[in-house]
Design goal:
The protein is of the alpha/beta class. 56% of the residues lie in helices and 11% in strands. The protein folds into three domains: 197 residues, P-loop containing nucleotide triphosphate hydrolases (Rossmann fold), CATH 3.40.50.300; 87 residues, Helicase, Ruva Protein, domain 3 (Orthogonal Bundle); 70 residues, Winged helix-like DNA-binding domain superfamily/Winged helix DNA-binding domain (Arc Repressor Mutant, subunit A), CATH 1.10.10. Bound molecules: adenosine-5'-diphosphate and magnesium ion. Magnesium ion (MG) binds next to α4.
Length: 416
């Protein structure tokens, strides 16, 4: 009897190539090796050459969770490091403006203080850190967000005076919106607005913000002046079947150098089916589902992945994802929101539904219902679509995949 790992070896694979899926779990080398160039990459490259030629750039990478923003952020950082740039990466937490500011200065000042840089830069970073390290516990009235933004921009200006390229990458921007109190968010965004209005004139400087489309739309509603200071928006659309096939090939190749360009044990039709029906063009979901399909195929000792092993694999992926999502639903959603989600899933086929139409069924007044629905959009459970004056809501594709049975999307023959 062959164990699963041994069977993977029969495919010529050292291990399951779809195991490491998040950008954080991959090294910069692995990211480069497995990357498939898309239209987004060309736009990013053109902005990088702008700043390498002494210009400045402000770029937003906008895409759903798993669309490939963080791997781009990582590639931008690697490219600029090779040009001896001082580039800083941060994921800002939600919370009070003080907490966000603390995290922002921490991720710039601390690395700068520890780098081999000209003395005046190190001094400037130390002074800034001295000023802002207590910011989270300072009385709110004493804290001036625009000064924080200006101070940060000044530091980058100093870096530019040394003819050093610099950059600030803010990943998972949605976290600020998801985890902050509405009332405080405006103040947080003022830091960014002020920083951005000064950053735009700094030679050789780039700001990159990675955000989900929902959070970016909220930003435009809450504080449009921040969004207008971002000059380039690069939107990640669902990947085509062709790109999906390329992504799969590169992954397999990285773990099976002996068979470059081979899709074995998959074939193009299988990848197309998975990309279209289950991943809906989302690279992370594609890899997640392929991982389970390969596991199941290896356990069953199948020589090739056919449509039947696809179904078994999807079922396995579904169970794993369901555990994680159920936990998230329990932790993040209030009981009222859970009622709404349950109704949309069990009785409305996942949507799209006109939000206000649920108010009778749920016994909630329209104003409250609409507030809950919008919060669930910001928390990434629902998508919101506007068609003229009609606003509809729909569950996210990942939830559709997970709750296929509850949604009546699985044919009876596919069940036990
Ligand atoms: N063009 C691409 N080529 C290769 N892999 C990709 C591509 N786009 C996305 N991926 C893969 O999808 C996964 C999710 O990407 P990630 O950057 O973490 O998404 P996001 O930050 O948008 O949530 C990663 O494993 C990444 O390797
Ligand atoms: Mg990411």
């Amino acid at each position: 009897m062959l164990s699963e790992d041994e069977y993977l070896k029969k495919y010529g694979l050292k291990r399951n190539p779809f195991d490491k899926i998040s950008a954080e779990s991959m090294t910069a080398d692995e990211i480069v090796k497995m990357h498939v160039v898309t239209a987004a990459d060309k736009k990013i490259a053109s902005n990088l050459s702008t700043i390498l030629n002494g210009g400045s750039a402000t770029v937003a990478l906008i895409g759903e969770y798993g669309s490939g923003k963080s791997i781009r952020a990582s590639s931008i950082i690697e490219t600029l490091k090779r040009k001896d740039a001082l580039i800083f990466y941060t994921k800002l937490p939600g919370g009070t403006p003080g907490i966000v500011t603390y995290a922002l200065f921490e991720s710039v000042c601390i690395p700068l203080m520890n780098k081999d840089v000209p003395e005046d830069l190190r001094k400037a970073a130390e002074d800034l850190w001295e000023n802002y390290r207590e910011i989270a516990s300072m009385p709110e009235a004493k804290f001036k967000p625009y000064e924080a933004g200006k101070d940060l921009a000044k530091l980058f200006k100093k870096i530019a005076e040394h003819d050093i390229i610099s950059g600030l990458v803010i990943d998972e921007f949605e976290e600020i919106i998801e985890a902050s109190i509405q009332r405080e968010i405006r103040k947080t965004f003022e830091i960014l607005r002020e920083y951005l209005s000064h950053a735009v004139g700094i030679s050789g400087h780039i700001t990159v913000i990675c955000s989900t489309p929902n959070a970016w739309a909220s930003l435009k509603e809450i504080h449009p002046a921040v969004a207008t200071r971002i000059h380039v928006e690069i939107v990640f659309k669902p990947v085509s079947d062709k790109i999906a096939i390329e992504i799969t090939k590169k992954r397999l190749e990285a773990f099976r150098p002996t068979k470059p360009g081979s899709l074995d044990p998959f074939d193009e039709d299988v990848i197309k089916k998975v990309n279209k029906e289950y991943a809906t063009g989302n690279p992370r979901m594609l890899l997640l589902v392929l991982r389970s399909i390969l596991d199941v195929a290896a356990q069953n000792k199948a020589t090739k992945v056919d449509f039947e092993s696809v179904e078994g694999g999807v079922e396995f992926a579904r169970e794993k994802l369901k555990d994680a999502q159920s936990e998230r639903i329990k932790q993040i959603l209030t009981p009222k929101m859970r009622d709404i989600l349950e109704l949309i899933i069990s009785e409305k086929g996942g949507g799209p539904i006109v939000g206000t139409a649920l108010s009778d069924e749920l016994g909630m007044d329209q104003g409250n219902l609409s507030r809950y629905l919008n919060q669930m959009v910001a928390l990434n459970f629902l998508n919101k679509n506007r068609d003229g004056r009609i606003v509809t809501f729909e569950i996210k594709p990942e939830l559709k995949l997970i709750f296929a049975e509850e949604l009546g999307l699985i044919a009876d023959s596919a069940k036990e």
